[in-house]
Amino acid sequence: MAKIIGNALPNIPWQDPPAESRLPLWRYDANPIIGRDGNKRSNSVFNSAVVPFGDGFAGVFRCDSMSISMDIFAGFSKDGIHWTIDDEPIHLVGEDPEITKREYRYDPRVCYMDGKYYVTWCNGYHGPTIGIAWTEDFKTFHQLENAFLPYNRNGVLFPRKIQGRYMMMSRPSDTGHTPFGDIFVSQSEDLVYWGRHRYMMGAVKGDESAWQSLKIGPGPVPIETDEGWLLIYHGVINTCNGYVYRMGAALLDLDEPWKVKARGKDYILAPHMPYECMGDVPNVTFPCAALADAETGRIAVYYGCADTVTGLAFTTVDRLLDYIKSNSFDCTSGGEMV
Ligand code: BMA
């Protein structure tokens, strides 16, 4: 039995697994939990992140508007399933107007550390890079310097310092719909200056694990377990009908998280349901958040569906770890296995 290191979360959203399930994740039976019309002007609500907050939950949501501008909005929920999302984008304050000036903002992650909620997102600054801000109340967000130069996407923090440093995964990119992409870990002593970049793992060439053959990117803030960091990520294949986004999982070394201990060859969830296969961008399942209950080992994953709506799926730490360990592969063209 693996153990989640962290707090108990007795009010984690939950449904028991179906009697038979080939995949380690199973969907909430009333998915999607958030429709297109999550707030007043939204065209779509997806690729969004939630955390426990007060006696319920809070989150930062990607809402593309009816003019199709991409921005991030705070939202609140009592049960993690029914959400009220602000009609106005989050309020960012910061020292340098050069940095707080908005071009576009999307795909937020939220990471709780030492009394603050850190938001990372894909931030337009002469190309996509990683924005960082912190909040204590989900009302005022204090924006820090962008972590990296353009071009980069999918900045995801580890939820505590490791070996005395903050660590963040990211996926260096290009200006457009990037046709490549590997995950790196960068380190910082102050959340401003990032360096000591380490390669974690990459897309997998050939057909050994073809669903992740084009590019990969980190998803939710990783979950600490006594066996290592449990990482859920997305993997992409290029097809004659365009990109398809599926979810995978890997186990990372606790002290040197760029070292991959196990990585599943098979996906853990993929666009199979109509709301995942049809929408503004078909065939996308894109995880950005996971809640975990250290008491029971339950995990609830929030994911964007077809760039249109938000879905919820469940697993347990044991199911997920057993699955990736039993179909782990030596990804010689990807990360180093330890
Ligand atoms: C990626 C990002 C995601 C999106 C995905 C599929 O490049 O833009 O926000 O979900 O493409 O369109």
Give the low-confidence spans: none
Shape: globular
CATH superfamily: Glycosyl hydrolase domain, family 43
The strand order across the widest sheet is 6-10-9-8-7
Mean pLDDT: 96
Family: Belongs to the glycosyl hydrolase 130 family.
Keywords: Glycosyltransferase, Hydrolase, Transferase
Organism: Allofournierella massiliensis
Protein name: Glycoside hydrolase family 130 protein
Quick summary of this structure?
The protein is mainly beta and 338 residues long. It contains three helices and 22 strands.
Topology of helices and strands:
Elements: E1 26-27, E2 42-53, E3 56-65, E4 70-77, E5 84-85, E6 91-93, H1 97-100, E7 105-113, E8 116-124, E9 128-135, E10 140-143, E11 152-157, E12 166-172, E13 183-188, E14 194-201, E15 215-218, E16 223-225, E17 228-239, E18 242-252, E19 260-263, H2 274-277, E20 285-293, E21 298-305, E22 309-316, H3 317-326
Parallel strand pairs: 6-10
Antiparallel strand pairs: 1-22, 2-3, 3-4, 4-5, 7-8, 8-9, 9-10, 11-12, 12-13, 13-14, 15-17, 16-17, 17-18, 18-19, 20-21, 21-22
Bound molecules: beta-D-mannopyranose.
GO molecular function: hydrolase activity
Family: Belongs to the glycosyl hydrolase 130 family.
InterPro entries: Glyco_hydro_beta-prop_sf, Mannoside_phosphorylase
